[in-house]
């Protein structure tokens, strides 16, 4: 039978020759109201997924309009926080509470104003707000990690990086707008599972993008669909909007973790040869890609209390995927087995092999600025805390196990962690 796909991440009903009975409503509890007519005019046709996405109103979801109905005290506190939006200790969780879950919209409206983008591009404020609401609502609040608060956190980090002297003096308004838009939309409509999961369950997005940067391609295409639907940039020349769409894609696709080494090798070569020419648009774009990659994985470089919350959230999302895989008798993906993959061991590995190499090169690029030194200091302190927690876990397990042996996965994590 043919598969029928609808809703945000898709609902795959029984299909012969594919993995049966994988119901993605387990990932997203949104109630669907009524059938979506196939002849319904849908403006967001950029990806197969968009065809079935249709209007949130059709699915019985009333758009949130609570942003301007907040208590004045909360609005006052949120405004005060925005005055310090360039500080690295910015608490995005508190800001999201103060804005009643509208952190992404509120933050972007403020940053577009601060950077003079509204005036420069002659943007309509109502249209900008409508577009940002679309982006914010296309994130899944049910995801512990890949939600609109993560997008707001990445955007705030991107704002900090765009102000680094080495970069800031060369950036054009177009560069800044691209950087902020890419940060805000880089994970839009994330289903809460990773690419290997989509591939092995034969999800339609994996087929659409031929198993290559599946999620990142979807985030990009979804963003373009919303840009066109909102008509935010409709007043600009077509060649300009086309260029913006392509560069957004290049930035969002750079966040694919599978391309980490590709970007690190290229960055190392530029730094070693001292041949970065930020006067050139191509080199500036490359450094915007690096900045977005840093912003996307900067959680371990935050204050411990914030970093720990993000670590727990991302692992909770991993474990949910593992539970799904176990439920449908699939092989449990790496890092997704709650019985074997502990939060400290996951975080130590992530910091050692992914975060440290990137941020050490970023610090080399920026020239050891106060922000870069601050981030690396937090990273080292946080890693030491996770080591301490891992040690306590091992001590506890040994005291409960007279054989004094740790599990194979923990032993491997410890051995790998000693590798420089």
TrEMBL record:
Residues involved in Zn(2+) 1 binding: 150, 186-187, 296
Name of a matching Pfam family: PDEase_I
Region (Disordered): 391-420
GO biological process: signal transduction
InterPro entries in the record: HD/PDEase_dom, PDEase, PDEase_catalytic_dom, PDEase_catalytic_dom_sf, PDEase_CS
Pathway(s) served: Purine metabolism; 3',5'-cyclic AMP degradation; AMP from 3',5'-cyclic AMP: step 1/1
EC numbers on record: 3.1.4.-
Cofactor note: Binds 2 divalent metal cations per subunit. Site 1 may preferentially bind zinc ions, while site 2 has a preference for magnesium and/or manganese ions.
Reactions listed under catalytic activity: 3',5'-cyclic AMP + H2O = AMP + H(+)
Entry binding sites for AMP: 146-150, 187, 296, 347
Polar residues bias locations: 396-413
MF terms in GO: 3',5'-cyclic-AMP phosphodiesterase activity; metal ion binding
Annotated active site: 146 (proton donor)
Domain PDEase: 70-393
Cofactor requirements of the protein: a divalent metal cation
Enzyme class, broadest EC rank: hydrolase
Alphabetical UniProt keywords: cAMP, Hydrolase, Metal-binding
Residues noted as binding Zn(2+) 2 in the record, renumbered to the chain: 187
Family: Belongs to the cyclic nucleotide phosphodiesterase family. PDE7 subfamily.
The name this protein goes by in its record: Phosphodiesterase
Organism: Cephalopterus ornatus (Amazonian umbrellabird)
């Amino acid at each position: 039978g043919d598969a029928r796909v609808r809703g945000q991440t898709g609902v795959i009903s029984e299909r012969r020759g594919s993995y049966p009975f994988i119901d993605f409503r387990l990932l997203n509890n949104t109630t669907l109201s009524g059938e979506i007519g196939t002849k319904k005019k849908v403006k967001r046709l950029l990806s197969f997924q968009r065809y079935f996405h249709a209007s949130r109103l059709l699915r019985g979801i009333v758009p949130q309009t609570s942003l301007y109905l907040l208590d004045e005290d909360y609005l006052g506190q949120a405004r005060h926080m925005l005055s310090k939006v360039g500080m690295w200790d910015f608490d995005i969780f508190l800001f999201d509470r103060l804005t009643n879950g509208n952190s992404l919209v509120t933050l972007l409206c403020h940053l577009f104003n601060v950077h003079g983008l509204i005036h420069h591009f002659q943007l309509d404020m109502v249209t900008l707000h409508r577009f940002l609401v679309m982006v914010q609502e296309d994130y899944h609040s049910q995801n512990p990690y890949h939600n609109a608060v993560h997008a707001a956190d990445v955007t705030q980090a991107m704002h900090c990086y765009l102000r680094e002297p080495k970069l800031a003096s060369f950036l054009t308004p177009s560069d800044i707008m691209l950087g902020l838009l890419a940060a805000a939309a880089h994970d839009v409509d994330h289903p809460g599972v990773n690419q290997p999961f989509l591939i092995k369950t034969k999800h339609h997005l994996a087929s659409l993008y031929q198993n290559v940067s599946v999620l990142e391609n979807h985030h990009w295409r979804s963003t373009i669909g919303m840009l066109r639907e909102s008509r935010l940039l409709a007043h600009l020349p077509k060649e300009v909007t086309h260029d913006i769409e392509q560069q957004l894609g290049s930035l969002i696709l750079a966040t694919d973790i599978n391309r980490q080494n590709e970007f690190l090798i290229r960055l190392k070569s530029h730094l070693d040869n001292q041949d970065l020419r930020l006067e050139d648009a191509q080199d500036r774009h490359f450094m915007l890609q690096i900045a977005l990659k840093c912003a996307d994985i900067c959680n371990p470089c935050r204050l411990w209390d914030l970093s720990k919350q993000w670590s727990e959230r991302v692992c909770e999302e991993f474990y949910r995927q593992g539970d799904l895989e176990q439920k449908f008798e699939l092989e449990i993906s790496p890092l997704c087995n709650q019985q074997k993959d502990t939060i400290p061991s996951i975080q130590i590995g992530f910091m050692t092999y992914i975060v440290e190499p990137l941020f050490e090169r970023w610090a080399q690029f920026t020239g050891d600025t106060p922000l870069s030194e601050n981030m690396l200091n937090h990273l080292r302190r946080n890693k030491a805390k996770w080591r301490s927690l891992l040690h306590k876990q091992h001590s506890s397990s040994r005291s409960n196990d007279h054989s004094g042996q740790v599990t194979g996965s923990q032993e491997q994590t410890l051995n790998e962690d000693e590798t420089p």
